[in-house]
């Protein structure tokens, strides 16, 4: 986010398994990867002109979308990804991910009635997972199991908490550009963990890459890294990079934003060898055209033509920003973008969609509710929203949110990323009873949504207390399709939430990268203006009772963490 008035938030934690979606495949000894592809298409006829392909790899699936030169989605498809989760350790396979990407691309193009040779440009977005490959590009295990397929440390993996604490103890100057501390979800702690625990793998790895950078490398053979990924997750100093670009008038250049003292200090000085070859010797702006475009091998695998321009990638949440930032209606227009030369203030929660899944799937009422949703061809979220509306009427509640007056949730079930940066924080639920009904599940679901929204409010208040003036939310990601989720955010934040015309903002943002790489637009901003379109504006309730209610619940929300700190301290003293 720039230092202007707009704030982008995104569901950056795609669900591990959504209801009404096929589960990830179960793997046995076979090296083949089975796939199920989900597809949707636009009912509108395809327009003549340039066609751009956006690819987004989330936690549970790879998705592809084909857009026309007006930013209209013509067809989209998804394919599930295998995930191994054992406590704080979460791993995936880059081979599996690539197969899922290829399956979703073929299906999306087919559904959009687009031939492979018609695609004009391609862009990738992905979670901030860490990929390890050798000099031949083959996977190198990052797993205690030794399974070579498991070469991806997923973004949400928390194995490196101690390594993050060690890195933070040095108080390196680079830390002032990432909130004063690295999170165990960032790459330096994970790299240090591998070096300390898997020395054989450490010696074998030739390239350590953010997942979105690996995808563009796999597609083009060019291992240039994105300014987005390196700055946000690797402590790369983007302002130093931009200064060199201005002085040398270059778009693509040898990386000059690494702080060598930092890497030496934390015990990873060997990554400096070969001009930082293992972590990125070349860094480019998002949308920069990579190599000679899509390689022949990748083109055959994806059902496309060789040579299609491929743009330097973006983190998924940032791609969502690119896919929505210029969607602001004129009456609300003062758009600031996730672009080079803008400072970005990033705040996030470690679990949102995955947390809602956890709450729902672990409740006794969930199986029959899921069956009913499937029979009605709707989502379990839609059913829960309907149940809440009925409960409000039956209980004569003044508004839906008031149903949770006795139920409070601190959503730190996977730690707190922002603004507290406490990976040891735990989730808290207050107001539990022996009730196992669907109504009780609906209340827990609503209280969890509210807890997430209070977390967003905490982040924004922290930003505003330090010089920002955020008064509008721009929503993207899967949860932005849930009207209750969006309205609760508007009410709790007390500001409007803007939704784009195209709900698939992350895919559109990725496609915009392809449009820039194909030189259909001179800059990322110009492409955003051309391909984004205004959508709905969801405004907060004007009922003063709603504000009073949420202010009271927010106070309890903040107190829950303070109580946790007090309890943590008391128990530490008891065990001392």
UniProtKB/TrEMBL annotation:
Residues 52-323 form the Carbohydrate kinase FGGY N-terminal domain. GO terms for biological process: pentose metabolic process. Residues 1-30 are annotated as: Disordered. SUPFAM superfamilies: Actin-like ATPase domain (SSF53067). One of its GO terms (cellular component) is cytoplasm. Residues 337-518 form the Carbohydrate kinase FGGY C-terminal domain. GO terms for molecular function: D-ribulokinase activity. Keywords: Kinase, Transferase. Belongs to the FGGY kinase family. PANTHER family: FGGY CARBOHYDRATE KINASE DOMAIN-CONTAINING PROTEIN, RIBULOKINASE. This is FGGY carbohydrate kinase domain-containing protein. It comes from Linum tenue.
């Amino acid at each position: 986010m720039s230092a202007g008035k707009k704030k982008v938030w995104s569901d950056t934690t795609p669900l591990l398994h959504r209801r009404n979606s096929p589960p990830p495949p179960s793997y046995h000894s076979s090296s083949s990867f089975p796939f199920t592809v989900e597809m949707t298409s636009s009912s509108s006829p395809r327009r003549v002109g340039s066609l751009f392909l956006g690819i987004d790899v989330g936690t549970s699936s790879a998705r592809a979308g084909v857009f026309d030169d007006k930013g209209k989605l013509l067809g989209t498809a998804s394919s599930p990804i295998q995930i191994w989760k054992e406590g704080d350790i979460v791993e995936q396979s880059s081979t599996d991910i690539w197969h899922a990407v290829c399956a979703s691309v073929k299906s999306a193009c087919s559904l959009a009635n687009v031939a492979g040779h018609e695609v004009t440009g391609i862009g990738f977005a992905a979670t901030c997972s860490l990929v390890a490959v050798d000099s031949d590009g083959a996977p190198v295990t990052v797993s205690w199991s030794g399974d070579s397929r498991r070469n991806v440390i997923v973004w949400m993996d928390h194995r490196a908490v101690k390594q993050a604490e060690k890195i933070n103890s040095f108080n390196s100057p680079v830390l002032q550009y990432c909130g004063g501390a690295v999170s165990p979800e960032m790459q330096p702690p994970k790299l240090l963990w591998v070096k300390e625990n898997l020395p054989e793998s450490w010696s074998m790895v030739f390239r350590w890459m953010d997942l979105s950078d690996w995808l563009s490398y796999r597609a083009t053979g060019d291992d240039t890294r994105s300014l987005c990924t390196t700055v946000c997750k690797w402590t790369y100093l983007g302002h130093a990079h931009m200064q060199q670009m201005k002085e040398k008038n270059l778009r693509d250049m040898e990386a000059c934003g690494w702080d060598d003292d930092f890497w030496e200090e934390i015990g990873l000085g060997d990554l400096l060898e070969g001009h930082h070859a293992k972590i990125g010797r070349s860094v480019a702006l998002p949308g920069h055209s990579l190599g000679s475009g899509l390689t022949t091998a990748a083109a055959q695998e994806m059902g496309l033509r060789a040579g299609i321009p491929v743009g330097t990638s973006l983190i998924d949440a940032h791609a969502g920003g690119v896919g929505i930032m210029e969607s602001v209606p004129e009456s609300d227009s003062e758009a600031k973008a996730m672009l080079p030369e803008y400072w970005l203030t990033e705040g996030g929660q470690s679990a949102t969609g995955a947390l809602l899944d956890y709450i729902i799937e672990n409740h006794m009422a969930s199986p029959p509710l899921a069956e009913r949703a499937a029979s009605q061809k709707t989502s379990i979220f839609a059913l829960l929203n309907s149940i809440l509306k009925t409960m409000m009427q039956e209980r004569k509640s003044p508004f839906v949110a008031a149903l949770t007056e006795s139920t409070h949730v601190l959503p730190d079930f996977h730690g707190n990323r922002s603004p507290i940066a406490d990976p040891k924080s735990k989730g808290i639920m207050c107001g539990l009873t022996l009730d196992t009904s669907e109504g009780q599940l609906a209340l827990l679901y609503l209280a969890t949504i509210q807890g997430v929204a209070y977390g967003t409010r905490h982040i924004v208040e922290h930003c505003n207390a330090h010089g920002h003036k955020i008064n509008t939310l721009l929503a993207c990601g899967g949860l932005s399709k849930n009207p209750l989720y969006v309205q609760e955010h508007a009410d709790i934040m007390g500001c409007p939430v803007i939704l784009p015309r195209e709900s698939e903002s992350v895919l559109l943002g990725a496609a915009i990268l392809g449009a820039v790489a194909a030189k259909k637009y001179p800059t990322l901003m110009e492409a955003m203006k051309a391909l984004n379109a205004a959508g709905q504006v969801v405004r907060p309730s004007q009922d003063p009772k709603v504000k009073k209610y949420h202010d009271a619940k927010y106070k309890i929300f903040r107190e829950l963490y303070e109580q946790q700190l007090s309890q943590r301290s008391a128990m530490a003293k008891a065990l001392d």
